């Protein structure tokens, strides 16, 4: 998206921010590479920031695959339109995201401020029909939702009815996928992942019958090492690992026609930093560096969705990174998307958990605009 000075000023006024702050933020997008930490399968460095939509080289993320999860702009969705001139509620946020250039969105629930058109809760058939009209008005496609996945197993009749309602809403919205923002289980033990696989197979079959792909969105803990052998603890649980990571085990025991995944690339790189060694069954300490792009490459068709989230190095917070607007950090997205390939299959959703600001009401939409520009600028 090439912006002239006039359109930049229009964007700045829409977001309710001063010219100096707007320019300083945009300057950060084009900042040079930041020194990478000495961890990971290969050094993680900031890719050069090609200028504009029409830069040289193959576009890594086609225009119709560029999306954003609405969690990034949740403050705007939940804002009272009667208290501000900033975009507020689903309809106005959709309009703004479409202006930036986005063509896809991922929901993080269906709630907004009560004063926004449609009312507070659109988690219903009628609410979904209203959301679909707005999506169509602005040329947006809903790709998925971080919604309801039953916690209990076996499924209760109430949970089953609620899940089926979410499948119906997803179909009204035109989604291809339906999922959750959480891991299949928080456990480190093989037996619990086996149970999780049974539940996800059952839910995945229901989704398949509804024409949808059921997906799980994963954080760093899911890439820790599975405890599956060695001496047992006082509760009879294994204490050591074969070296397989929890999510890799889940992939190996689930049906690829029923269970899909959404990699949050930021959290996968956090896992690369955190989970480097394990205690083998024989008691020895083994080193294994996680390769996020390698995992996707081995299971490429099981990853229809990504979260494209960026970070800068922070060796003091236990994670290795602090979140920043997409394209202004050090995670090498050019290499990642080049390695995983299938650019017309994967749909990256820009995300920034900390985009909303209590002191700068327009910040989350401002950062959404920056994220789109940098996603569009990625070239091989």
UniProtKB/TrEMBL annotation:
It comes from the Bacteria. The keyword Isomerase applies. Residues 94-350 form the Xylose isomerase-like TIM barrel domain. It holds the Pfam family AP_endonuc_2. It comes from Streptomyces sp. 900105245. Keywords: Isomerase. GO terms for molecular function: isomerase activity. Residues 347-366 are annotated as: Disordered. SUPFAM superfamilies: Xylose isomerase-like (SSF51658). Residues 354-363 have a biased composition (Polar residues). This is Sugar phosphate isomerase/epimerase family protein.
């Amino acid at each position: 998206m090439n912006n002239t000075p006039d359109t930049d000023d229009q964007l700045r006024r829409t977001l309710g921010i001063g010219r100096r702050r707007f320019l300083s933020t945009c300057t950060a997008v084009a900042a040079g590479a930041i020194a990478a930490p000495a961890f990971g399968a290969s050094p993680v460095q900031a890719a050069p920031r090609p200028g504009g939509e029409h830069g040289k080289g193959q576009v890594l993320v086609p225009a119709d695959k560029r999306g954003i999860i609405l969690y990034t702009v949740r403050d705007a969705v939940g804002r009272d339109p009667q208290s501000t001139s900033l975009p507020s509620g689903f309809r106005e946020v959709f309009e703004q995201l479409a202006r930036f250039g986005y063509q896809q969105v991922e929901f993080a629930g269906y709630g907004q401020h009560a004063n926004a058109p449609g009312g507070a809760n659109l988690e219903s058939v009628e609410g979904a029909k209203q959301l679909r009209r707005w999506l169509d008005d602005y040329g947006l496609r809903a790709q998925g939702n971080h919604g309801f996945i039953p916690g209990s197993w076996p499924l209760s009749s109430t949970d089953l009815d609620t899940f089926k309602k979410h499948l119906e809403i997803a179909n009204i919205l035109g989604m291809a996928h339906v999922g959750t923002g959480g891991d299949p289980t928080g456990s480190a033990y093989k037996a619990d992942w086996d149970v999780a696989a049974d539940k996800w197979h059952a839910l995945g079959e229901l989704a398949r019958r509804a024409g949808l792909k059921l997906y799980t969105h994963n954080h760093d803990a899911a890439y820790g090492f599975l405890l599956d052998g060695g001496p047992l603890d006082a509760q009879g649980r294994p204490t050591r690992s074969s070296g397989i990571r929890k999510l890799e085990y889940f992939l190996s025991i689930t049906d690829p026609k029923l269970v899909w995944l959404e990699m949050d690339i930021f959290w996968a790189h956090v896992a690369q930093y955190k989970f480097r060694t394990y205690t083998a069954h024989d008691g020895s300490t083994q080193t294994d560096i996680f390769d996020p792009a390698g995992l996707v490459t081995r299971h490429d068709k099981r990853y229809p969705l990504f979260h494209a989230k960026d970070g800068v190095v922070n060796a003091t917070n236990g994670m290795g990174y602090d979140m920043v607007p997409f394209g202004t950090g050090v995670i090498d997205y050019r290499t990642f998307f080049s390695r995983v390939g299938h650019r017309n299959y994967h749909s990256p959703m820009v995300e920034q958990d900390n985009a909303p600001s209590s002191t700068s009401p327009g910040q989350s939409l401002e950062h959404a605009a920056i994220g789109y520009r940098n996603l569009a600028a990625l070239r091989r």
